[in-house]
Each structure stands twice: as structure tokens, then as C-alpha cells.
Amino acid sequence: MSRPRPDGGHRPAGPPTSVIAGLRVDGEVRRDAFTLRVATQVAAGESLAVLGPNGAGKSTLLRAFAGLLPLSAGRIELDGVVLDDADTGVLLPPERRRVGLVFQGYRLFPHLSVRDNVAFGPRSTGLSRRASRAAADVWLQALELTALAGRRPHEVSGGQAQRVALARALASDPRLLLLDEPMAALDARTRLEVRTTLREHLRDFAGPVVVVTHDPLEAMVMADRLLVLEGGRVVQEGSPVEVARRPATDYVARLVGLNLYAGMVVAEPGGQPQAHVVLDSGGVLHVTGLTSSGLEVGDRVLVAARPAAVSLHTRRPGAGSPRNVWRGEVAGLEPSTDRVRVQVRGEPDVLVDV
Q: What are phi and psi of 7, to 5 degrees?
């Protein structure tokens, strides 16, 4: 893929524009009525997890990094080398980008052995068959796959296939590693076993890593930083701790297991705005500390509540003097390891862990 020049030729990759190692993007991709707009950086040795609901633009971003989708505007650089610049016409094709991609379904070649699947990466860069197999052997040993070298993909487990796909991506000596839902093809038990192992292997990779996932636990464990997309826009970015402590949207709050409500500070009848928030979604919450925090009447606020901090009662509680009490109806139950998450419809809706 290349972007034609006005004279009918093609622009080569741009020269290095910066000594900063890592990945930088500031651009957008337009596809029919959808537009993805992202500006971020991923340092060398850093892992960035990209989360968001279906249709948020996660896969579109990954495809742009890989060179499978051109930018409509803006620029992508890797280690100071321009991969894509919509203004100047530079567009480096996928095969010339030093990018390793691990697909969601791994896409191992069924007719090749594990060893030859891994050797395909370096072989595609122009190495001889012997040199490619030698490079493959290094990664087979590093990812503890040597004993499986002669097997075909259908003869290995899901977790082993995931490591084979990772070895194939790493064997081509990439400067950028992209992982598309790396755990999606694994069952729940295998996912737990593989998650920590994969994180350990990623720590040894010197370049930037971008992981697309919809699983918040996977993102928290594997990434140094999170980027959350909604509707083609970045709604929050930061470390896992920062995002979990201060979710910026209702989607992010529910992603990290919080109830989040937007509203406005309103004065208590006949007094100061001590603890009274009228919610946009309906209902009122009384919250301590509004006055001491410097908030004033009319200020917009976000109120967060952990599901474990909410109690359910079949009748109005007569003891304990809860600050907020409202009626609701159980709309759903989600059993988990040691608890049940209850979805309650009311004003406001709320998630409760019991």
C-alpha cells in the first residue's frame, strides 16, 4: 500500500524526524460515517492497553499502526521514522514496517510445524531458510516451545498456540509489537494461566507494545498505561491506578467496577450546598465533603460508588441511618467467584456486589 504522489510516483518512507524512541500518533482515520481521532505516545519498553466498547475504534487504531489502513489526516512515527503522513503523502506499506502483529485468532499456518510457523516471521524479511530457522529456535527456547517445534498447530493447546503466535511476531525483530485481543481465543482457566506469563515476556521486549482488549483485568495486569476509546475519541488515558481511581465516564467506571454518576451541586433547602447532588440520570445523592472540597452551587461533579459499598434491603432499613435510600428493581444477576453482582434499575440505576 502506498499513497500516490501528484507526479504519479510514490513517496518513500520519511526520514527520522526525532531522536525520541517509541511510537507517536496524532491523526485520524475516516471510514464512512465513523471517524477515529487519537493523539498519544508509547515509549520504548512501555505497554499501552487500548480499551473501549464495540465500535469504539480499537481495531481501526491497530490497523492504522500496522499499515493496513491509511490515515485520513495526521501522522504516525516509529522511532522517529515517519510511517504515515497524510499531508506529505508518506505511507510505508505493512511489509516494510518493523511491526509484529499477534492476531486475535493467532492465524497460525495449519500445514506448517510450530518451528516453521515461527520461522515465517524472519523468512518474510528476506533471511534464508537456515537463518530463519535459527532465529526461530531462539524464540522457541525463550518461550519454552522447543519441545513442540515439530508439532502442527492443531496438536498444541490454546495457551501454547498463543505463545507460538507471539514467538512468530518477535522472531522478525520488530520495533513495535501489536496484540489484538491476545486472550480472546482462550478459555477462562487457560486465560488466567497465560496472562501473567505473557506479561513477563512483554517486559523483555525493548520496543513499544500496544494491546487491544475489552477485558479490564487483562489491561490492568499487562499494561503500564491505559487508553480508553468511546465513539472514536480518547475519553481517558493514564496508569491503571489513575484510571481506576478517577474514571472519567460511566463506561470507564463500570469497566473498573464502579458506579459513576454525573450531576450538579444544588443548595440544601434553606442552607448551604453541604451534600446535595441532583443527578443527570434522575435521582438525588447526598454526599459528604462537598463544602470542604471548595465546590459551589451549580458546579458539575462526578460521584463514584463501589458496588460493595451499596446494600440491598427488601424493605426500607430502620437502622444504620444510611445517607441515601431509594427504591429499585433487580434487573439482572451475574455470579462471580465469591460474590454476585446485582443490576438494579431505579433512580439512579446501580450495581451492587453481595
A: -85, 5
